[in-house]
Design a protein that fits this description.
The protein is α/β, with parallel strands linked by helices and about 350 residues long. It contains eleven helices and six strands. The termini are far apart.
Length: about 350
């Protein structure tokens, strides 16, 4: 008897390839579904942001909105976030000034012909999103940050407010460097300068008209000298730098409430600092004038001695104060040279 054999069941050709093909099909379906879901989520986020932008140029966000629309993927848009503290109890005057410039910039973008869904302006107030400040280890306000479409913000995505200031033009330049979106800043018309100039011209014209029969005061050397000194004090104290950079008046530490009127860096200054420097320069100049008066006048010797002591005291005291400010800003002063 011939030995029995077990006959293998008849299998159709290619049946061994069914499990891999089925697995590949399922993966494609799952990936395609996930990709479609991702695209739908992105479309919903962009649509919601566009709707908010149509109502207000700067979108206010709390912790939940920030995590959903700024931090969480997917994103194909850039977000500029201003972290601030605008509530009156915070007493942050710098925050209010920076917010005004930020609103000007956001409105310039919102109502420009280049407006698109590639860039959004948002704001997170400390009293509405304290958890966001804690999450980012942020302890000062105001702060401007750029969140790119992909990845995490880098060091350059934080605006250097202390060095550059918060003028809308400077913010627009920084945004152009980070996003390639160029914003032309349009400011609302401000007629205060025109009105002030008109009042000044009217005042001078009225004074000349009233004194038309006696114009000798125009040739007064003391008056022209005082006017020239005022211009010199304004320029040497940094008023033009303030006009160009738009720095804050002062800085208040949100942790301890301490107000700083002198900037700690040699690359920046506060508006209050320029006023302090102006007064110090004026006091030193007054001391020099008194010293010159004591040396050149021919009056009573005792009176001249008093004028000399007062002038010397003004120069010594206020120039020492000026040097102390210089030392606090330019670390390492007084400088020393190593001679070999």
């Amino acid at each position: 008897m011939a030995p029995s054999r077990r006959l293998a069941p008849h299998l159709p050709v290619g049946s061994s390839l069914l499990p891999p093909l089925l697995l590949l099909f399922l993966l494609c379906v799952q990936f395609g579904g996930g990709q479609k879901k991702k695209e739908n989520l992105l479309a919903e986020k962009v649509e919601q942001l566009m709707e908010w932008s149509s109502r207000r140029s700067v979108i206010r966000m709390n912790g939940d909105k920030f995590r959903r629309f700024v931090k969480a993927p997917p994103r194909n848009y850039s977000v500029i976030v201003m972290f601030t503290a605008l509530q009156p109890q915070r007493q942050c005057s710098v925050c209010r000034q920076a917010n005004e410039e930020y609103q000007v910039l956001a409105n310039s973008w919102r109502y420009s012909s280049a407006f698109s869904n590639k860039l959004f302006f948002t704001i997170v107030d400390y009293d509405e999103g304290a958890d966001v400040f804690q999450q980012l280890n942020m302890n000062s306000a105001p702060t401007f940050m750029h969140f790119p479409p992909k990845g995490k913000p880098r060091r350059a995505d934080t605006f250097d407010l202390q060095r550059i200031g918060f003028a809308a033009e400077q913010l627009a330049k920084w945004i152009a460097d980070r996003t390639d979106v160029h914003i032309r800043v349009f400011r609302p018309p401000n007629y205060s300068g025109t009105i002030a100039l008109a009042l000044l011209v009217s005042l001078v014209g009225g004074l000349l008209y009233l004194r038309r029969n006696n114009l000798e005061f125009i040739y007064n050397k003391t008056g022209w000298a005082m006017a020239a000194l005022c211009v010199v004090f304004a320029m040497t104290s940094g008023q033009m730098w303030n006009h160009i950079r738009g720095p804050p008046y002062a800085h208040k530490n949100p942790q301890n409430g301490q107000v700083s009127y002198i900037h700690g860096s040699s690359q920046a200054q506060f508006v209050a600092e320029s006023h302090i420097i102006l007064l110090l320069n004026a006091a030193i100049t007054m001391g020099m004038v008194l010293l010159n008066e004591a040396a050149t006048s021919k009056g009573d010797v005792g009176k001249r001695r008093i004028i000399c002591l007062v002038g010397l005291g003004l120069v010594v005291f206020f120039f020492s104060f000026l040097l102390s400010i210089f030392r606090s800003k330019y670390h390492g002063y007084p400088y020393s040279f190593l001679i070999k």
